[in-house]
Design a protein that fits this description.
By secondary structure, the chain is an all-alpha fold. The protein has one domain. The mean pLDDT is 92. The structure holds fe (ii) ion (FE2) (2 copies). The site of one fe (ii) ion has 5 residues, from helix 2 and helix 5.
Length: 151
């Protein structure tokens, strides 16, 4: 049996580490060097690629019994909310793939394209924050209910 407090603690830990990775990535995309971008672009590709894997594993863990299923088990009326989160996982996962492709195809002198890729990363991080805030609210709501109570 899944213990609610374990899930709440797990999701808090996961989201904390995603927050740290997001902040580090944001720091890089907000400071595009004016010249000599080779090293910066290599570092960004590397960081983004690791971030993508981390995030896709996180989505998979949330779907694979980590969080979403127990929420529906406890609160079946929250199924639409959970489905919405699942759809966002799928879209963000495709978004991550697209941005990585873009980062691999641009060169250090492609100023406008680099700016565009960085703006897309910022928009993705903003959507991700919204998504994670939504999950935190859901966890707080479900886990603040009486343990024996069900929909
Ligand atoms: Fe999620
Ligand atoms: Fe999450």
């Amino acid at each position: 049996m899944v213990v609610k407090t374990d899930i709440a603690e797990w999701i808090r830990r996961e989201h904390r580490s995603i927050r740290e990775l997001s902040d580090a990535l944001l720091g890089e995309v907000r400071l595009i060097p004016r010249f000599n971008r080779d090293g910066w672009l290599d570092a960004l590709r590397h960081r983004f690629s690791r971030f993508r894997v981390h995030l896709q594993n996180h989505f998979e863990a949330e779907e694979d019994g980590g969080f979403l299923e127990p929420v529906v088990e406890c609160r079946p009326t929250l199924s639409p909310e959970v489905e919405h989160l699942r759809r966002e996982h799928s879209e963000m996962s495709r978004w991550l793939d697209q941005i990585l492709d873009e980062l691999r195809s641009v060169g250090p002198d492609d100023e406008l394209l680099l700016e565009d890729a960085c703006h897309r990363i910022e928009r993705l991080l903003s959507a991700l924050k919204h998504h994670e805030d939504h999950e935190n609210l859901l966890v707080t709501f479900v886990f603040s209910q009486d343990m024996g109570e069900k929909d």
